[in-house]
Amino acid sequence: MSLDGEQLTVVGIGVAALLVIGPAIFKAANVKGDTNNKWSTRVDLALVALDDKIVRELAEIGSATALLLPPADAPFDPVQAIVDPSPLSERVERTADYYAARVRMPKDLARACKLGRKFVASLSMLAIGIVPLTLFYAELITWGPLRWAGVALSGIGLITLIVASIIYIICMDRLSDDEILADTSSQARGRRPR
After folding, report:
1. pLDDT for residue 171
2. Cβ 69 vs Cβ 87: under 8 Å
3. Which of 16, 38, 128, 163 lies at a C-alpha separation of 20 to 30 Å from 55?
4. What is the chain's mean pLDDT, rounded?
5. Which candidate, 21, 28, 38, 37, places its Cα nearest to that of 118?
6. How far is residue 45 CA from its own chain's centroid?
7. Closest-CA residue to 125 (of 156, 163, 89, 164)
8. What is the dihedral of CA 138, 141, 142, 146, to 10 degrees?
């Protein structure tokens, strides 16, 4: 059986796609470990720093609040009872940001680590889908359902890969933002793996 030019082109494209996807599958298998290795210490450092910032801010809020309010044993005076809380609002918002980052970081790290399986599954589906598509479009096998099986597998794999990639990018972006908020990025960079 000899293949003409068009068939060889289709087979070449299919083989080239598999040669790209194959190593990507092995790289994706390491996403969980690589992400955990890169971020676990950094998240731990950031959490400690955020806890410290939250405690300091709450102490400052408590002190500032005590200064705004009249003494507890003073008689009630409506003029003194009504105070402007706006000087505290910025500090309260900053504390809320620290707390939100502190809660979000472990979740984002766990979510990013779990995506490794999604990457492997989606790339594997894409690779498996390329085989029947290559066989069909190279006219080596002309059975119609083979094409639709390839389209379905490749489509599901590609959509899953795109969605997982977007989620991974969002998690990495938020982890970076939260690390910057914690102001610990220079500390994490200074540490060397053992």
Report:
1. 96
2. no
3. 38
4. 86
5. 28
6. 18
7. 156
8. -100
